[in-house]
Amino acid sequence: MAGTSQAAQFRRLEVVERDGHYHAEIEARIDAPAEAAWKILSEFSRLPEISPAVQESETLGRAGPHAWMVRTRSLVCVLWFCRKIRQVQRIQLAEPGSMRADVDPEQSDFDDGLALWRLEGEGGATLLRFYARIKPRFALPPWIGSWLVKRAVREEARGSVLNLERLAREALK
Description:
The protein is of the alpha+beta class.
């Protein structure tokens, strides 16, 4: 496996906007074992290595038996418009391969947000299923338009999946 050169295969990568919320759904096959991908994903300090937008990640403390409060600072750019975004999430690890992140609106630039990750073994690879729903608190310039935001979310998602795959494969060496 470590010698193969396949890249992630995206079976689904959709972003839609409804009622001020952006919804993203991803299903991808990652060319790395689920255990390796999970180990990378569940180390919150590595979020800047996974996500092209995340510049900083800090664990603030425990929020339950299998939950943590995590703050991220990101820089998201759509064409020449860039915005710094702060986000605090309660991240719950339900079982190996399953993660839920709920945005704390009081400490974030979002009125609402949810992300669900599911990693399952598929032979020597991983089937990644991801769903996210966000509602930005900030107004977007009208010239950006929904389609550009959706494009930026798709690019961020694609980059994150490819980075997760690369990091998981490197961990096997």
